[in-house]
Description:
Blueprint lengths: L1 E2 L2 E2 L11 E2 L2 E2 L3 H15 L6 E2 L3 H12 L6 E2 L5 H6 L7 E3 L2 H17 L22 E4 L4 E4 L2 E3 L29 E7 L5 H17 L2 E7 L6 H6 L7 E3 L8 H8 L1
Parallel strand pairs: 5-6, 11-12, 11-13
Antiparallel strand pairs: 1-2, 3-4, 7-10, 8-9
Helix pairs in contact: 1-2, 4-5
Amino acid sequence: MTLDGKTLIVRELASREMITDKGATWDANAAGNAIKEWSSAFGDQIDLIVSNNDGMGMAMFNAWAHANKVPVFGYDANGDCVAATRDGFCGSISQHPDVQAYLTLRVIRNCLDGVDVQTGIGIPDEAGNVLSDSDFYYKEKERAFYALNVAVTAGNYKDFLDPKAVYAPVSHQLNTKDHPKRRVFLSIYNKDDDLLSQTYQPLLQQYASLLNLDVSFVGGNGHDESTILKSLDVNKFDAYAINMVKTDNAGEYTSLLK
């Protein structure tokens, strides 16, 4: 591959120390150790680092790249990486976790209320909650809502310094008369995942309050469904939201919930 007439050599950090029999580890310590080894082997041949999550990117930034003025880009817009943008971290990608969290619970709220699924999403609700086309899109054939990614750069990083802040256009409280309190079981497939535990779940908790939902969270281990399945009480909740490790586990849930 060439870029402006120069040869571009790409070496993946998904090297053997980043992989276990369970798959990719997304391990920040392993990334920090790997970049030290690579810098020793390749030195000034390393011109750019792109990480598929901020934890690994930040580890490489701190371990070697910052001191050697090598640009690092991450993914997830974690608070520490966003703050480091003012100190030379080049940028990240926000998955719009605030919109993801809102969409998750809003779809549940709408189903429980028996209203149009787009209420409070593409259609304003009575409290004024609504998202714009730049926030999400809906795939009708898949019946799926998608939050749109946003680039975080030196020009806009201040808007992302608090990753746990609710999104203003959908931050309005619903009334309990039309939207009575309901109990929801919600699983997080990996309780140790940084984005899920540090950003997504705290946002879910805030939106749960705004949408009058009493949400019980159960965290899995990221490898199998057993922890979550053992905690699933089919008689205690009005709705169940399952964040699965693998889609082929769906039958285990539907057999319990039928």
